[in-house]
Amino acid sequence: MTDKWLPDIVPLSPTALEQWLRCPRETLLGRVLGLPESDPGASPDHGLFVHNLLHQLHAQGSCHDAAHVADLLAAYGLDDDSETRGILERHARRCPNEPTSGHHEVDLTRFYRRPPVMFMASARIDALWIVDDVLDARDYKTGFRSIDRVADDPKARLQAWVLAHFAARKGLRLRLRWEYLATEVDEDPEPFVPEDDDLDAIGSELAAVVIAMRTDGAFTGHAEPELCARCRYRSLCSESLAPGELSWPAALLGS
Ligand SMILES: [Zn+2]
Question: How many A from CA of 16 to the centre of ligand 1?
């Protein structure tokens, strides 16, 4: 049943993968049918602002240059904002000092084709630094840490699979780091430096996910109370254990 709804080459981003693993029914509603969220979550404004701030900081100078940091904070009227200052100071302690090159918000893809499975994995990475023979990839995180090792997170594994392919073509080794910016987080999780065996295993894992998407049949939801309570489609989903009031605008509801 699902096979006819999916394209021949299934797109697989870290967010799409996470959504599928969280609840196949959410994938059906959000990605296959493309419905708007009935229960939008908190606004990501703070995270976006911090990401943009780091982007600007690196584009116009160095995060290790105290005067440059002070100028940027002043430009936003944040001279006395200890939280933002703390974020930038924490970041500077972790950021490469003299990279050969660096890029922000880089989109990369990697194609997988081993019949009968085809998918196009994609990953947007916040910053890519080249330091000696290492491709130092950074995903900036503004929330709280939930893992001890980057290699343990499915989204990171997908990122690594895509990034390692790019690194190999450049003759570089990949190191994927999730850099936590909140000053409350003591240590970042252990970075992922994947070996060939790791990458082969990840390719097989992702292929298994795509096969499951094609063969599971009904996008059956996981229907767990805690999961449903946080779901952005909980008021729309016929399987929800925590339905709420549908928040779509009246025009969408046809009234
Ligand atoms: Zn930096």
Answer: 28
pTM of the predicted protein model:
0.89
Per residue in 199-222, pLDDT tens?
A: 999 999 999 999 999 887 678 888
Q: Does the domain at residues 3-34+99-227 carry the CATH identifier 3.90.320?
A: yes
Residues with CB under 5 A from ligand 1 (ion): 63, 95
CA distance 134 to 57: 22
Determine the distance separating the centroid of ligand 1 and the alpha carbon of 131, expressed in angstroms.
Answer: 13
Q: What is the Å distance from ligand 1's center to 90 Cα?
A: 10
Cβ within 8 Å of residue 190, ≥6 positions away: 148, 149, 150, 151
Q: How far, in Å, is the centroid of ligand 1 from the Cα of 46?
A: 18
pLDDT of residue 242: 80
Using the mean position of ligand 1's atoms as its centre, give its distance from the Cα of residue 101 in Å. Answer: 12
Q: List, as one string, the DSSP characters of 83-101.
A: HHHHHHHHHHHHS-SS-SE
Candidates 236, 239, 238, 241; CA nearest to 39 is 236
For residue 135, how many C-alpha atoms fall within 13 Å in the half-sphere facing its CB?
A: 24
Instruction: Judge whether 149 and 194 are in contact, CB under 8 Å.
Output: no
CB 192 within 8 A of CB 151: yes
What's the 171 CA to ligand 1 centre distance in angstroms? 24
218 CA distance to ligand 1 middle (Å): 45
pLDDT score at 250 = 57
**CA 102 to centroid of ligand 1, rounded, Å:** 10
Q: Distance (Å, rounded) from C-alpha 188 to C-alpha 103?
A: 21
Residue ranges covered by each domain of the chain: 3-34+99-227
